[in-house]
Amino acid sequence: MSFVTQEAHYALYPAQTRYQRHLDQFQYAPGRTVFTISYLNWDWHAEEGGQLCLHLAERLQDLLLSRNRLVLFRSVDGATSYKGTTEHHLLV
């Protein structure tokens, strides 16, 4: 696996909004191989919602938005979605 190009996406989600389930690999752009999410939330609590939900082949895996958490996964492994709402939902 080599990294020839890079792409970045910055998103700040307002309260009561969500990022829908999606695939991170597109048929017309097969070059995206690794996806990273870095959470920079300073004062987030689990009851606020907004967990990252990984749709893996064998199960769903929820991850909390802990500050300084870095999530890396192969883009071809499945889909991701965010459930719940949070005022602190920040992705870089």
Q: Can you walk me through this structure?
A:
This protein is mostly beta strands and 92 residues long. The chain has a single domain (11-91), classed as Sandwich (Jelly Rolls). 0% of the residues lie in helices and 33% in strands. The strands form 3 sheets. A 4-stranded antiparallel beta sheet has the order 2-7-4-5, with no helix packed on it. It is globular, with a radius of gyration of 14 Å. Mean pLDDT is 65; it is low at 81-92.
Key terms:
92 residues, single chain, two-stranded antiparallel ribbon
List the helices and strands and how they pair.
Blueprint: E1 11-12, E2 22-23, E3 34-38, E4 51-55, E5 60-63, E6 70-74, E7 79-83, E8 90-91
Antiparallel strand pairs: 1-8, 2-7, 3-6, 4-5, 4-7
- Arithmetic mean pLDDT: 65
What name goes with the CATH superfamily? q2cbj1_9rhob like domain
Q: What is the structural class?
A: mainly beta
Under the CATH scheme, which architecture would be assigned?
Sandwich
Computed Rg: 14 Å
Order of helices and strands: EEEEEEEE
User: Span from first to last CA?
Assistant: 22 Å
Strand adjacency order, main sheet: 2-7-4-5
Q: So how many helices?
A: 0
